[in-house]
Specification:
Elements: E1 7-10, H1 16-27, E2 31-36, H2 40-52, E3 57-61, H3 70-85, E4 90-95, H4 110-131, E5 135-144, H5 157-177, E6 183-189, H6 196-199, H7 205-213, H8 227-233, E7 245-248
Parallel strand pairs: 1-2, 1-4, 2-3, 4-5, 5-6, 6-7
């Protein structure tokens, strides 16, 4: 497959890691569709920046935790692909959208559980099922996990266990989609300084310093450390990687 003029769909692409993934994919010559829930203004800024760089881009509203909205999103996506990109299908699906929250096990509620499950597991599962017929053969799917599936941070039992489920799902998809030459991998960032989880790392210098001190490269991550990893998995050079968990954490807790 060529390394240019493919179309990527990045969920949660209006800011943070998702924005850098969109920018990194565009820098590799790809056109990009991003989704957002409430940050329309930010999403429009991303589109404008990508278009200024010479790529085609679009932003669409999607709540990945609302499976009932998926059919309507698919219909809208088909229209955007046709009108904006002159295409019937796209090539790369990046399941990035997520929510954060430090929730101690003892105080977790069923409502918390359902909200996290709908976004991080059920939504990923069924959105991908709906999108699969629109992904070109030879395409790529990249899911997002977390370093906390390997090492433990108290308060992340709900988030990390659902990310662990997606890690298992990734291997099943790699096997099931292999006949179509679609690779499926999952990227697991370590601590990254963004506004995720109410900018927890950025807002807590002591936590940031502690996490950096247990990382081989001596700092926490930034968004620009993660986007290029996703872009690589969508490149010609990543064509022989499938079913893998790739931790991008600077070597934390080795």
């Amino acid at each position: 497959m060529s390394t240019t003029n493919k179309i990527a769909l990045v969920t949660g692409g209006s800011r943070g890691l998702g924005r850098n993934m969109a920018e990194s994919l565009a820098a590799d010559g790809h056109d990009v569709i991003i989704t957002y829930v409430s940050q329309k203004e930010e999403a429009d800024k991303v589109v404008a920046a990508l278009e200024a760089a010479g790529r085609k881009a679009a932003a669409m509203r999607l709540d990945v935790g609302d499976t009932k909205a998926f059919d309507g999103f698919i219909t809208e996506l088909k229209g955007v692909l046709d009108s904006k990109f002159g295409a019937e299908r796209f090539d790369f699906l990046i399941n990035n959208a997520g929510i954060g929250g430090t929730i101690p096990f003892a105080t977790a509620t069923e409502e918390d559980f359902d909200r996290f499950n709908n976004v991080h597991y059920k939504g990923v599962y069924f959105l991908t099922q709906k999108l699969l017929p629109l992904i070109n053969d030879g395409g790529r799917i990249v899911n997002l996990s977390s370093g906390t599936t390997r090492f433990v941070n108290p308060g992340y039992s709900m988030y990390a266990s659902m990310k662990g489920a997606v890690e298992t799902l990734t291997k099943y998809w790699a096997k099931e989609f292999g006949a179509r030459q679609i690779t499926v991998n999952i990227v697991a960032p370590g601590p990254v300084e963004t506004d995720f989880n109410n900018a927890f790392i950025r807002s807590n210098p002591e936590v940031k310093a502690r996490l950096g001190s247990v990382t081989a490269l001596g700092r926490v991550g930034v968004a620009e450390d993660i986007g290029p990893v996703v872009a690589f998995l969508c490149s010609e050079g990543g064509r022989w990687i499938s079913g893998q968990r790739i931790e991008a954490s600077g070597g934390i807790n080795l």
